[in-house]
Amino acid sequence: MAVPFYDDNLYLLNMKNDLEAKASEAIPSVESLTAATKDPIPPSSVLKQLAIAVEAGSKAKSMKDLIASSGVSSPARERAGLSFSAVKALVLREKEDKLTSEFTSNEKVVQLINSLFDPEGDFLRRKINSNLEETAMTSLPRDIHGAPPESLVVKLAEILGNYKTLRKMALFWCRVVAELRKLWSEEQYLPGVPQNEIPDLKSCLLYQHFQVINCCISRKRFRIIATESLDSMMMQANSDIKESTDCCAGAPASPVLYARLNSGELVLRLGADHPAGDMTLLETGEPVYSPITQEGPLLTEDLIRETEEFVLRTGSVGAGCSQLLSDMQAFKAANPGCILEDFVRWYSPPDWTDNEASTEDSDVFDSGEPLSTRGQLSQRMQKEGNLWRELWETSKPVPAVKQAPLFDEDLALEGILNAFEDIHPSDLFGQLFVSLLGLGFAIAEPMLSSNSDFSKLFYDCKEYIIVACQNNKLNEKVDDLVQVYETVEKMLLDPEEALKMIRQTEESTMVTGEPRSPFRTLSLIFGGKDKLLRKSVSKDQTNDEEKSGRQSFSSFFDSKSSLFGKKPPKSGFPSPSAKSSIDTGWTVV
């Protein structure tokens, strides 16, 4: 027979679990995050939470799966049998919709979103040393494949790192994606991202996609302006022709709008941008104008990889042909009376050779002079069946703004936003982790590089994170990287104490006769700190690491020393069972 009795320890434990569960559900506010910017670099606790998310998120396939699975089921429910499995999908869908609705309408979440996407706000903007060289701020984030300091990606990383549960982090990300869709539909730029720059392949893929979004908005705006300008110019040209016909037989006054053919006919130039130096058309002698051309596709690193694989597999060069054909059509529209040789001289100068005699007499134009006496195409251009000649013969004079777009912005953005919804949690959190790590080091560098006590150690730490982030094994390194970041944070926030402990440790190593190593020193100083937040590496885990050849932080510098003896926990998120724990001290035996 079971006998209930009251256990004070169990009651206190359950109380503690309930408090921790409630704290984990708290949503960070704009005020609390703004107050945190008083610290020189983002708190290590934020980076640690992202590190935990990288490891814990590897078990889910997408952010949506993370929302549906995180905290919904429990071992007890799973043991309920097949009846639970049969209705699980419907329950998850209903619960996910309810959670998303409640979260997105939360006042703190709305304020965070508004502050994050405020183009004129100073939200999460840290004070950066004015003497910092620009190269230090830009090179390190690119070396580790992160995002530029003060960018939207870095701010997003700091916000998500302040959440305490994976579910809340996933829900906030979904809210961010919804905001991205809204801004795209309204053609509003993303703050903290250049408005018209091609993707920076040295930055993380998330930042590249943000660059694509702003580039697409710029292109759509430019196309609208260019189309209106072309239509207005054509209307003005028609008006000028009518007036000149009524008043006199002379040519219109604007040399930019028209080109004269050999027959004497004046033809309107369409899509002409600016004169191409002193070049003139070979057959008519009219100035050559560089046309406004279509911009090529916006290629991020994943698209470049897919394109290369497609070309290698099929041997296709279709994209290049489409761009060439488009440029030919734009050139024809801007230069009536042109021939292939004119296009080649403008587009690919190495494929055209001017005759010396023709160059010396270039001031005198003779339309009856044969082309062979003025220059010639390269051998590859003269070959029968040359692709350029075939495309030229099929191309028509069409300005770029009237052509079918080579790059469909709407289709590209829809693909990016859909990919955001289905992104693997570990991929997202990994990019955010590295970006925030880069910001901290970029800000800390001018503060510690000139410090004779810490500069050597700082640069050793910097070297380590660069190597660790470039080997594409972030999941194996996040714990070590967090500890490196904590070291830098300690030197910034409490330099006197850090220096004191370093000197004490150096004295102890001199007595024992061990090799002097700054990393050995830091292992003794900080290795025992934060025991509640770190756990020892198990023997089995150590053996697995040795078998896989994993390079630890300490082995990077000194195989005999250990910089940090402890590691942060693999999962810092509260167990779902913590929320449902009984808050009494009664148990049954």
UniProtKB/TrEMBL annotation:
The superkingdom listed in its UniProt entry is Eukaryota
Query: Where are the residues of the annotated region Disordered?
Result: 355-374, 536-589
Compositionally skewed regions (Basic and acidic residues) per UniProt: 536-549
Write the signal peptide boundaries.
none
- Low complexity compositional bias: what residue ranges? 552-581
Q: Rab3GAP catalytic subunit conserved domain: which residues?
A: 269-421
Q: Where is this chain compositionally biased, Acidic residues type?
A: 355-366
An annotated Gene Ontology molecular function: GTPase activator activity
What Pfam families does its record include?
A: Rab3-GTPase_cat
Q: Which InterPro entries match?
A: Rab3GAP1, Rab3GAP1_conserved
Q: What PANTHER family does UniProt report for this protein, alphabetically?
A: RAB3 GTPASE-ACTIVATING PROTEIN CATALYTIC SUBUNIT
According to UniProt, the name of this protein is Rab3GAP catalytic subunit conserved domain-containing protein
Q: In which organism is this protein found?
A: Glycine max (Soybean)
Q: Give the classification, highest ranks.
A: Eukaryota, Viridiplantae, Streptophyta, Embryophyta, Tracheophyta
Give the gene name: LOC100798096
